[in-house]
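Bumping with the actual sequence this time:
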Amino acid sequence: MQDDEYLAALQADREKELKAVQEAELRRVDEAAAREAALERQKKEEEEKLKKQREEEVLHLVLSKSKFQNIIEILTFTALG
């Protein structure tokens, strides 16, 4: 009878240990997925920031070119006028 109780206790301990290992593995996988998601969000934010910066640079160049063309037109008109 004691042998049966001992074996049952060993089996229960093994099951608890296996469950703990499985839970730890699930936490590890969840944490890895969370880190990956955070890195992906950060990458997208950086890409959006860079895209906005490029758009602002293009707009600045367009406005600068437009101002330059306006000055040339004024000078040309003044010289001809």
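The tokens above came from a reply further down the thread. The CA atoms of residues 71 and 77 lie 10 Å apart.
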